[in-house]
User: What shape does this take?
Amino acid sequence: MRKKHVIVALQGGLGDQIYQYCFGKFLREKFNFKLILDLSFYKSKQNKKKYKLELNDLIKKDKILVKKKIFLLGYFFLSKLRFINFLNKNIQIFIYKLLFKIKVDYFFYEEIYKFKKFNTNIINYPYTFYSGYWHFKETVLLNKKSIDSVLIKKSIRKKKISKFIRDKIGKNAVMIHIRGGDYLEKKYQQHYVCNFDYYEKGILKIEKKIKNPEYHIFTNDILYAKEIVTKLKLKKTFYVNDLRLKNVEEFSLQTCYRTALINNSNFSYLPSLLSKKRQLTISPKYLFKNILYPKQLVLDNFYLI
Assistant: This one.
């Protein structure tokens, strides 16, 4: 007998992919469904930042089926399917049959910027297509062991990275994540940008705790980062960009720091969640403009500014 399936759409960068992947794994394990990951986003015009799938090793290990394109129309129209939920169920299923390559009976869309608490009683009908970001730390923690063994340890055991950890990441090493680039563009003005004032307050907190800190800068925008670091007048700094690491390697390296001054980005939040060494994580109290960090995502080692 063929196993009933659910479909989870992957979209965004590494952090979002991890959330979505872990949410799908939760559905598979709890309800005994076959999990299918839809990659339609990555070949669509909506992928303006040119993100790529970065979870190939995890997907291969967990033997999860991947489909490059399940939705037959442009990805832009996928989210619009939530507007037909008022129709008779049989009519909805008929429409889904026309628009999807495989069986879909339900479409569940997560409203962006509405961070709900994790609920194990989430809709769990078979043949549901899930479109959203699913920022639940609980589902990530359920998969912490496999993420650690397949993504993190694989990266930090590489010769160049393990040498850097051994030589450079001592008790006084502090990681700082500075995100500029897309966060500074007008079309992404919904983002709360961590500016000089935020980093200055974070440094004051760190220097009360650590003597002679050495700051390791993680950034997607070296010019913006250097502008902030220069104004901060930090004595000892190192730009991790100089190591020329892959995205997943930088992500994994962040888990090795006891102290971190992070950005409001999944790229530095998730390493804080997954780290076995982290003692203090300084984080902005705003996740987006006018949206405070959801309480359910705040970690025990967080200090909010």
Summary: The mean pLDDT is 93.
